[in-house]
Amino acid sequence: AALLLIHRLIQPLMPPAAGAAVVLAVGLNPYFWDFKDQVLSDLPFLFFFFATLLCVTRAHEAERSARLRGVLSVLGGFAMYASYATRVIGIVLLPTLIVSDFIRYRWLTKETLVAIGTFTVLAALQYLLLTRDTSYTDLLAISASVIVANGRSYAGWLAEIWANGYAPLPQKLLFLATVALALIGYVSLWR
Question: Which helix (H) or strand (E) holds 114?
Answer without folding.
Answer: helix 110-129
